[in-house]
Design goal:
Its cofactor is [4Fe-4S] cluster. The protein is α/β, with parallel strands linked by helices. The chain contains 15 helices and 16 strands. It folds into 2 domains: 249 residues, Aldolase class I (TIM Barrel), CATH 3.20.20.70; 62 residues, no CATH class. Helix 3 links the parallel strand 5 and strand 6.
Length: 401
């Protein structure tokens, strides 16, 4: 492994990701680490809380008491767990790490798993941002996606969240669904906008390996229809006052997801829970700064058994090789509409801007980059063809000496 010399003045912000692996039913498009348990399952909350505590404690020496700026609880379906579970978890966190006074704490919630009154408990526990996995308001589309909620359930969930005091809510919507027309896609957006969320995640359905949809693919809209959906959707969201700040993320002014911005700006994050991933900048004495990625045991039962295992919870770890660092950084930074300054590129990768010059020129000629020598910023065309742009950036760096 190459040693990464320290190129930044201070360590980046630190976030925490907590993974809850259980859901009622695995959706046919889902490639996340989620495990269906059916309705009314008695989840091992106490055992899982104990495991999360031990998992966190094992990682603490890597962060040296750094402040947490955000927490994101994802899944699976985190709203299957009780408010008491989260209140106890936050007590554990607060006793071990300083929390920013304005910390953002996001919980993913499925409208089909929420009991009346549960939102009040989540808000009282310390959760201050919700991400509702709506995907569509059309019942036929929801059934095609294997979702367990209806469009009416989603509207009810949003209403109850507001009554519980949540004033920062994201709605997750998908487009390019089986049989979806541009009119149906825009109708979903219109219904979402009528609920006045602060944030919208609007992304295209993709057929991922190791999913039911991949092995038995549904009939999806033709490419021309997909382009029409995207164009009309972007136009409608901008007209409604939502700023696109990442490929598939839109927010009202000042209400971008701080947690996800930290990912895309190459910040650090701890990952605890079954299958959770983390990325940390670690200083090894005179060796300088290393970037380490680590991931935890994936299967819930295997993860829980690690409580008694001297190996701990880490299933694997890897240091980011110096030659891989530019592409790793670009894969995150170029998702942002604002891109990244060339100064930040140099600081995080250690590579002079001149090593990219020829490929940047080629990318600009293809219309994939904004014409700004001080920034590495994808154009609207570059955001649509980001993989092509990343290949150009990666090839440029790999061949530069």
């Amino acid at each position: 492994m190459h040693t990464l010399s320290r190129r930044i003045d201070s360590l980046p912000p630190l976030s925490l990701y907590v993974h809850v692996p259980w859901c009622v039913r695995k959706c046919p498009y889902c490639d996340f680490n989620s495990h269906g348990v059916g309705h009314g399952a008695d989840l091992p909350e106490a055992h899982y809380l104990s495991a999360l505590r031990q998992d966190l404690d094992a990682d603490l020496p890597l962060v040296g008491g750094r402040e947490l700026t955000s927490i994101f609880i994802g899944g699976g379906t985190p709203s299957l767990m009780s408010a008491n579970f989260y209140a106890a978890l936050f007590e554990v966190l607060a006793s071990r790490l300083p929390l920013a006074s304005d910390i953002e704490v996001t919980l993913e919630a499925n409208p089909g798993t929420l009991e009346r009154g549960r939102f009040q408990g989540y808000r009282a526990a310390g959760i201050n941002r919700l991400s509702l996995g709506v995907q569509s308001f059309q019942d036929a589309q929801l059934q095609a996606l294997g979702r367990i909620h209806s469009g009416a359930d989603a509207i009810t969930a949003m209403d109850e969240a507001r009554h519980a005091g949540f004033d920062n809510i994201n709605i997750d919507l998908m487009h390019g669904l089986p049989g979806q027309t541009p009119a149906l896609a825009v109708a979903d957006l219109e219904r979402a906008l009528s609920l006045a969320p602060e944030h919208l995640s609007w992304y295209q359905l993709t057929l991922e390996p190791n999913t039911e949809f991949h092995s038995r693919p549904p009939v999806l809209p033709e490419e021309e229809v997909l382009w029409d959906i995207q164009d009309r959707g972007h136009e409608r969201l901008e007209a409604a006052g939502f700023m696109r700040y990442e490929i598939s993320a839109y927010a009202r002014q000042g209400l971008q997801s701080r947690h996800n911005l930290n990912y895309w700006r190459f910040g650090d994050y701890l990952g605890i829970g079954a299958g959770a991933h983390g990325k940390l900048s670690v200083v090894h004495g005179q060796d300088g700064l290393h970037i380490e990625r680590r991931w935890k045991a994936r299967q819930p039962e295997a993860y829980l058994r690690r409580c008694q295992d001297p190996r701990g919870f880490v299933a694997g770890r890897a240091e980011v090789d110096e030659d891989e660092l530019p592409l790793e950084f670009a894969m995150n930074a170029l998702r942002l509409v604002e891109g990244v300054s060339m100064a930040d590129w140099v600081a995080h990768t250690g590579r002079p801007a001149a090593t990219l010059e020829a490929r940047l020129l080629a990318a600009r000629k293809k219309g994939l980059l904004v014409e700004d020598g001080q920034r590495l910023q994808a154009s609207p065309q570059g955001l649509l063809f980001l993989n092509e742009l990343l290949v150009m950036i990666g090839e440029a760096d790999a061949g530069a000496e």
